């Protein structure tokens, strides 16, 4: 039996894969900041980076990222079988499995992350604009959705934590 993959190994591979594909944690955090700034006073990039890092700690998220990036890479090298090769390489709009994979991340963080994902996916803010630039010769069919989903998940995480902080403050002032 093959030895199982250690969590630390999986996490390292995920961060490396994102880095190799030109995505920094700060790029994702910048999207989170954009999404959540109107709702959380004094929200800064540092707090968004922390929340993105927490999302990236989850094995389900790591699995989704590694799977999506692998398919992007294989399509880029033209190593997938037909017709999947053409579908992923061309980022066909009716394919939809890239969004489904992103849902596996959003599922962990609830409805706020869903609405944020839809919003950022439409706007193509920040690094998403670069990832959607088809003239680069790179295939980012999965990566753009994964990055949007991580940012949206971190936004959902911040929203829930902010509410808890507010509740605590109200309780304290009522004491
Ligand atoms: Mg896509």
Describe the fold and architecture.
The protein is mainly alpha-helical and 175 residues long. It has one domain: Orthogonal Bundle (YutG-like). Helices cover 70% and strands 0% of the residues. It has helices spanning 7-20, 25-36, 45-56, 59-76, 84-90, 97-106, 111-123, 127-131, 143-174. Helix 2 (25-36) packs across helix 3 (45-56) and helix 2 (25-36) crosses helix 9. The model has no long low-confidence stretch (mean pLDDT 95). The protein binds magnesium ion. Residues 91, 98, 141, 144-145 line the site of magnesium ion.
Jot down its keywords.
single chain, mainly alpha, YutG-like, globular, binds magnesium ion
Task: Report the span from N to C terminus.
Answer: 59 Å
Tertiary shape: globular
Q: CATH H level: which superfamily?
A: PgpA-like
Domain module count: 1
Q: Helix coverage percent of residues? A: over 70%
Structural class: mainly alpha
Strand content: under 5%
Mean pLDDT: 95
**CATH top level?**
Mainly Alpha
Calculate Rg over CA atoms: 17 Å
The distinct ligands, each listed once, are:
magnesium ion
Q: What is the fold named in CATH at topology level?
A: YutG-like
The CATH architecture can be named as Orthogonal Bundle
SSE string, helix = H, strand = E? HHHHHHHHH
């Amino acid at each position: 039996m093959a030895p199982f993959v250690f969590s630390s190994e999986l996490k390292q591979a995920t961060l490396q894969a994102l880095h190799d594909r030109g995505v920094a944690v700060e790029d994702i955090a910048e999207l989170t900041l954009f999404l959540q700034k109107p709702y959380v006073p004094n929200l800064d990039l540092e707090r968004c980076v922390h929340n993105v890092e927490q999302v990236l700690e989850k094995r389900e998220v790591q699995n989704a990222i590694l799977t999506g990036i692998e398919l992007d890479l294989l399509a880029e090298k033209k190593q997938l079988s037909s017709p999947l090769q053409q579908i992923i390489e061309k980022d066909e709009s009716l394919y939809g499995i890239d969004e489904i994979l992103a849902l596996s991340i959003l599922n962990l963080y609830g409805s706020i992350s869903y609405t944020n994902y839809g919003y950022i996916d439409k706007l193509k803010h920040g690094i998403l604009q670069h990832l959607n630039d088809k003239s680069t010769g790179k295939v980012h069919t999965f990566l753009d959705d994964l990055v949007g989903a991580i940012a949206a998940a971190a936004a959902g995480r911040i929203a829930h934590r902010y509410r808890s902080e507010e509740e605590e403050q109200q309780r304290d002032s009522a004491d």
